[in-house]
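Hi R.,

Here's the chain you asked about this morning:
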Amino acid sequence: MKRFIIIAALCVPVAGLATTFETSDAEQANVFEIKVSQDKLPECEETLRDLRQKPVVTDSGWALPSFMVSDDLPRTVCVVDA
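And here is the predicted structure, written out as tokens:
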């Protein structure tokens, strides 16, 4: 019993620290930026709006369930290239 308590006491802080770093990195990793010139920005945003309205499918052509469509997929944004 003592061994279990010692192992748990050592693992919990390490696991908490790992989740802290993973959460902040995951938010940044789920955003894809498309860099465009200022005059192409409206066209890029319009294209992304059109694509968001289409059904999401896997590589094999199967449609994803509705609960997976918006939350589990990375976001894409248009950014003006400096």
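One quick note: Residues 45 and 51 are 10 Å apart (CA to CA).

Cheers,
M.
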